[in-house]
Amino acid sequence: MDTDGEFDIREAPGMAGGRARGGRPSQQDDLICLHDARESTSLMVLADGMGGDGAGELASGGVIHAARELWDERVWREQPGALFLETLCQAAHAEIRRRNAWVAAEPHSTVVTLLLRDGQAYWAHVGDSRLYHFRGRRCLSVTRDHSLARLKLDRGEIREVDLAHDPDQHVLLRGLGGSEPPEVEHGYAVVRPGDGFALCSDGIWETLGRSELAGLLRAPDLFDALHHGLALGAERGGETGDNLGLILARSRRPASWLGRLAGRLSIT
Fold this sequence. Notes:
This is Protein phosphatase 2C domain-containing protein. This protein is of the alpha+beta class. It has a single domain, classed as Phosphatase 2c, domain 1, CATH 3.60.40.10. Helices cover about 30% and strands about 30% of the residues. It contains eight helices and twelve strands. The strands form two sheets. It has a six-stranded antiparallel sheet with strand order 1-2-12-11-8-9. Strands 3, 4, 5, 6, 7 and 10 form a six-stranded antiparallel sheet that branches. The radius of gyration is 18 Å and the shape is globular.
């Protein structure tokens, strides 16, 4: 299990992301947090790779590579929010397929991504990595896992409280890197100041409850909250626990037109 010093934590304005290896010999979770101050736009991406012999790390790394390329090319300025996230997911899928030849095992990955822009939130996911949207203590929405266990829940065969520990939870019905382009699920919300979002790999949401995630987002310091959440997830996962990936984000008030103009005229 990871010690405190082995947590990999990254920060950007209004958000903090981090990962821990848990009890696994390798790290198959990857993430990125990006922010453009002039455009008051933030992008968060979290991926959980699957496949032995290094394929899982290769797959999740491919997702983050594709996201970084699209961000640097400023594609997000040219496309509506939902279309950009669809483009991102399809590009990540293509990148994983390109990396297929690098390893013996076939690489696959989940993805969950959030774009905050102009007081609006757009998100997309494939697989069982989740996004939670909170307003204070209340969970407004959570993404629906693309897993066999979730299908069993929909059929009434299991209870929601048993979902995280069902043996079919890790049997995914959708993912990136397969033979067919992925079917991406999208979400949208108008954001109020103080709204919070948590992007989680299954190593986090299987060990931390919704109320605990909401509590992390209400903490004064997101960095400290993130560190606490990763440590708690690693402790509960134990010596055989899964990798842990978590991004916490709090909405920021949209910049006024005067503020945006000042940002564009500022010298960097």
